[in-house]
Amino acid sequence: MKESLTSIGGAGSIVSAIAAAAPCCLPFLASIASTIGLSALLPYSEYIVYLVQGFGLMAVVGAYASYKKHGKYTPFLLTTLSVAALLFVYNVTLLTWLLYVALAGLAIAAIWNMLEIRRCQKCATAN
User: Fold this and answer.
1) How confident is the model over 41-54, as pLDDT tens digits?
2) What are the two backbone dihedrals, phi and then psi, of residue 22, each rounded to the nearest 5 degrees?
3) What range defines the domain where residue 21 resides?
4) How many domains does the chain have?
């Protein structure tokens, strides 16, 4: 159960980063999204905003599960701060630079958590 929550956190970080970056009009992501047919979701963009926030909260849950597994609080703290910034951007004021910082923070935290979990497993097998 805990390993699935850890996976969900990483997936939540990545999906929220991709979903939030697409409306920011990154040309590369916009061209890929239109190529695979995601432009059909444009009429539902107001709902996608809530979906991105939900994936962000899911990333916090997964980061907490990772924290309980490896005991390092800094990736969890980075995920929490990034999701707080994401929620601030979507609910208070749209600051593009803060959105990009939050997305970068989520990506870094997901990679950091993955490395900490691998490092923790190596320590467990070495003893």
Assistant:
1) 677 777 778 888 88
2) -65, -45
3) 2-126
4) 1
